[in-house]
Amino acid sequence: MYEQFYHTHYVSFSGATGATFSGLPAGVTGTFSNGSIIISGAPTETGIFNYTVTLDGGGCPLSVQGTIIVNAPTVTAMASPSAICYGESTMLTAGGAVSYSWDHGLGGGSSHTEHQL
User: Fold this and answer.
1) Residue ranges of domains in the chain
2) 111 and 93 in contact (C-beta within 8 Å)?
3) What is the dihedral of CA 91, 94, 100, 101, to 10 degrees?
4) Each residue's pLDDT tens digit, 13-27
5) Looking at 1-117, which runs of residues are DSSP E strands?
């Protein structure tokens, strides 16, 4: 999952009754309320997205364009200590993602203690 964001454009356009949105990344939506264009959500894909918002009503069409850049989230994994001997243990820790899956029967969760046998 990518980081959630919230962005508002304030528009002065007499008579606007709504807006249509195109080009937003998946997971991001747009709304129009009381003269404000609100774009928010948590994108589920990476890339560069050029979006257009077209206001409805008011007699003359008005469009606003913008760009949203979504980068891949940073995921980290580490062991502390990184080297262990017989009978010692290490803590495996991961961060930056929504869920985790570990090999060798460790299951989910962001951290596990592993023992050297």
Assistant:
1) 5-70, 76-115
2) yes
3) -50
4) 667 788 899 999 999
5) 5-10, 16-22, 28-33, 36-41, 47-57, 62-70, 76-80, 89-95, 111-115
Cβ partners under 8 Å of residue 87, min gap 6: 115, 116
Q: And the tokens for 28?
A: 């991001």
pLDDT over 90, % of the chain: 15
Q: What is the mean pLDDT of residues 55-84?
A: 79
Q: What is the CATH architecture assignment of 5-70?
A: Sandwich (2.60)
- 6 pLDDT higher than 70: no
Q: Is 15 exposed, middle or buried (0-12, 13-18, 19+ CB in 10 A)?
A: exposed
Q: What is the dihedral of CA 84, 85, 87, 92, to 10 degrees?
A: 10
SS3 of 32, please? Answer: strand
pLDDT digits (tens, 9 = 90+) for 88-107: 887 878 777 777 777 767 76
Q: What is the per-residue pLDDT for 20?
A: 92
